[in-house]
Amino acid sequence: MNLNDAVIGQTYTIKEICTDDEDLELFLFRLGCYSGEPITVVSRLKSGCVVSIKDGRYNIDNGIAESILI
């Protein structure tokens, strides 16, 4: 299941970041988005979603959300 399938307001644990793009993986790691970390979808937008990771909120597009497996 990827982040696009998540229910708004429910906290999930990140299982894996599934991408071949090393820059994207490093970017997500710097946000605190890596295996074992909790993540919550705060709201959905037309082109993506707002997520809560650690103590921050980030707007990510659907392509990035698809690479985050929960």
TrEMBL record:
<keyword id="KW-0408">Iron</keyword>
<dbReference type="InterPro" id="IPR038157">
    <property type="entry name" value="FeoA_core_dom"/>
</dbReference>
<dbReference type="Pfam" id="PF04023">
    <property type="entry name" value="FeoA"/>
</dbReference>
<feature type="domain" description="Ferrous iron transporter FeoA-like">
    <location>
        <begin position="1"/>
        <end position="70"/>
    </location>
</feature>
<dbReference type="InterPro" id="IPR008988">
    <property type="entry name" value="Transcriptional_repressor_C"/>
</dbReference>
<protein>
    <submittedName>
        <fullName>Ferrous iron transport protein A</fullName>
    </submittedName>
</protein>
<dbReference type="GO" id="GO:0046914">
    <property type="term" value="F:transition metal ion binding"/>
</dbReference>
<dbReference type="InterPro" id="IPR007167">
    <property type="entry name" value="Fe-transptr_FeoA-like"/>
</dbReference>
